[in-house]
Amino acid sequence: MGKSKGARITITLECTCRNSSNLNKRSKGIFRYTSSKNRRNTPTRLELKKFCQQCNSHTIFKEIK
Ligand SMILES: [Zn+2]
Question: How many angstroms does the Cα of residue 10 sit away from the middle of ligand 1?
C-alpha cells in the first residue's frame, strides 16, 4: 500500500435520517456505509442512494467528514 497520490480517498456515507428525532438512542449508533471516491472526479460531497436499516427504506446517504 505504498504509493498514494491522494486522489483516491475513503469516505463515510451517512443517511440523512441521522438528524431526525426518531433516531433510536439505544441503537448501536448511526448506520453508515464506507466507500471511496476519486477526489479529482468528485470534489463535492458524494451522495448515494442506499438502503438504510434505520429508515427501513432506500434513502440518500451523504458523505460526512
Ligand atoms: Zn436512515
Answer: 21
Percent of the residues in the chain that have a pLDDT greater than 70, as a whole number: 74
pTM of the model: 0.71
Distance CA 53, CA 30 (A): 10
With beta carbons less than 8 A apart as the criterion, state whether 46 and 62 touch: yes
- CATH code, domain with 17: 2.20.28.120
Q: What distance in angstroms lies between residue 15's CA and the mean position of ligand 1's atoms?
A: 5
Task: List the domain range (segments joined by +) for residue 36.
Answer: 8-64
Report residue 4 as a C-alpha cell.
Answer: 498514494
Estimate to the nearest angstrom the gap between the alpha carbon of 28 and the chain centroid.
16
